[in-house]
């Protein structure tokens, strides 16, 4: 494939992340918070600690991690109706909330957390693709800060980040923005740990089935991309 054919709309190389920045302490009242920017996508992630657990966990000596996700009405090109006005979250919102919660529970020893609930709220301020991945990456930072504040850092068992990869006209590419995501032949989301673990992989062929060799190329790109996200997380925690 020629260099011209592999050119991405953003001009990035196939294995190049969007510019990432993470700002902590943005929400002053939360036990932990992180404003993450991934290219044009911006998500405010906050961690709230409550000294109680859901009824099904009472008196079991362990905690719980849950998550909520939402988009501001003008986070996208056209105004979206607030889901509160509809009376219930959409199926997409519920699916993303569950993904974020699963990803964060996978990196916490709930026994060491004690009978506490930590809620991760991920609010999308601006959307340009990859909002669920940015939410997971930012929520992990907010969670780490909250655990340190309540002196439960030992409950954190892994470092987690997420990134999207896809098959486009430019071939296999890392960290899709909206233009690429909306026309991708295949779209995948990888939730990985810094020690090489896999928490979740979501993948969908939009046009035709993709091959095993293509999947492993996407996984290779995801490992490169999350390695850079882990560096960004570590840097902000060291300087917070």
TrEMBL record:
<keyword id="KW-0820">tRNA-binding</keyword>
<dbReference type="Pfam" id="PF01138">
    <property type="entry name" value="RNase_PH"/>
</dbReference>
<keyword id="KW-0694">RNA-binding</keyword>
<feature type="binding site">
    <location>
        <position position="92"/>
    </location>
    <ligand>
        <name>phosphate</name>
    </ligand>
</feature>
<dbReference type="InterPro" id="IPR015847">
    <property type="entry name" value="ExoRNase_PH_dom2"/>
</dbReference>
<keyword id="KW-0698">rRNA processing</keyword>
<dbReference type="InterPro" id="IPR020568">
    <property type="entry name" value="Ribosomal_Su5_D2-typ_SF"/>
</dbReference>
<dbReference type="GO" id="GO:0009022">
    <property type="term" value="F:tRNA nucleotidyltransferase activity"/>
</dbReference>
<dbReference type="InterPro" id="IPR001247">
    <property type="entry name" value="ExoRNase_PH_dom1"/>
</dbReference>
<dbReference type="InterPro" id="IPR002381">
    <property type="entry name" value="RNase_PH_bac-type"/>
</dbReference>
<dbReference type="GO" id="GO:0000049">
    <property type="term" value="F:tRNA binding"/>
</dbReference>
<dbReference type="InterPro" id="IPR027408">
    <property type="entry name" value="PNPase/RNase_PH_dom_sf"/>
</dbReference>
<dbReference type="GO" id="GO:0000175">
    <property type="term" value="F:3'-5'-RNA exonuclease activity"/>
</dbReference>
<feature type="domain" description="Exoribonuclease phosphorolytic">
    <location>
        <begin position="17"/>
        <end position="146"/>
    </location>
</feature>
<feature type="binding site">
    <location>
        <begin position="130"/>
        <end position="132"/>
    </location>
    <ligand>
        <name>phosphate</name>
    </ligand>
</feature>
<dbReference type="GO" id="GO:0016075">
    <property type="term" value="P:rRNA catabolic process"/>
</dbReference>
<keyword id="KW-0808">Transferase</keyword>
<comment type="function">
    <text>Phosphorolytic 3'-5' exoribonuclease that plays an important role in tRNA 3'-end maturation. Removes nucleotide residues following the 3'-CCA terminus of tRNAs; can also add nucleotides to the ends of RNA molecules by using nucleoside diphosphates as substrates, but this may not be physiologically important. Probably plays a role in initiation of 16S rRNA degradation (leading to ribosome degradation) during starvation.</text>
</comment>
<comment type="subunit">
    <text>Homohexameric ring arranged as a trimer of dimers.</text>
</comment>
<keyword id="KW-0548">Nucleotidyltransferase</keyword>
<dbReference type="Pfam" id="PF03725">
    <property type="entry name" value="RNase_PH_C"/>
</dbReference>
<dbReference type="InterPro" id="IPR018336">
    <property type="entry name" value="RNase_PH_CS"/>
</dbReference>
<protein>
    <recommendedName>
        <fullName>Ribonuclease PH</fullName>
        <ecNumber>2.7.7.56</ecNumber>
    </recommendedName>
</protein>
<comment type="similarity">
    <text>Belongs to the RNase PH family.</text>
</comment>
<keyword id="KW-0819">tRNA processing</keyword>
<dbReference type="GO" id="GO:0031125">
    <property type="term" value="P:rRNA 3'-end processing"/>
</dbReference>
<dbReference type="InterPro" id="IPR050080">
    <property type="entry name" value="RNase_PH"/>
</dbReference>
<dbReference type="GO" id="GO:0008033">
    <property type="term" value="P:tRNA processing"/>
</dbReference>
<dbReference type="InterPro" id="IPR036345">
    <property type="entry name" value="ExoRNase_PH_dom2_sf"/>
</dbReference>
<feature type="domain" description="Exoribonuclease phosphorolytic">
    <location>
        <begin position="159"/>
        <end position="223"/>
    </location>
</feature>
């Amino acid at each position: 494939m020629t260099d011209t054919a592999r050119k991405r709309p953003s001009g990035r190389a196939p294995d190049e992340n969007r510019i990432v920045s993470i700002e902590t302490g943005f929400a002053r009242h939360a036990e932990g918070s992180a404003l993450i920017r991934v290219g044009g996508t911006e998500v405010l992630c906050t961690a709230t600690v409550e000294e109680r657990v859901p009824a099904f966990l009472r008196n079991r000596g362990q905690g719980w991690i849950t998550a909520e996700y939402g988009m501001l009405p003008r986070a996208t090109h056209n105004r979206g109706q607030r889901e509160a006005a509809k009376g219930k979250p959409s199926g997409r919102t519920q699916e993303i909330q569950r993904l974020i919660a699963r990803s964060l529970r996978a990196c916490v020893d709930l026994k060491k957390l004690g009978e506490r609930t930590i809620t991760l709220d991920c609010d999308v301020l601006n959307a340009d693709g990859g909002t669920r991945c940015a939410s997971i990456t930012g929520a992990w930072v907010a969670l780490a800060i909250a655990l340190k504040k309540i002196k439960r850092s030992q409950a954190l068992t892994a470092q987690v980040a997420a990134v999207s990869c896809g098959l486009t006209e430019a071939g296999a590419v890392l960290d899709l923005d909206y233009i690429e995501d909306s026309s991708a032949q295949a779209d995948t989301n990888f939730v990985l740990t810094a020690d090489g673990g896999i928490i979740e992989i979501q993948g969908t062929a939009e046009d035709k089935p993709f091959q095993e060799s293509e999947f492993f190329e996407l996984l290779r790109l995801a490992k490169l991309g999350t390695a850079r996200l882990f560096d960004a997380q570590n840097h902000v925690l060291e300087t917070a």
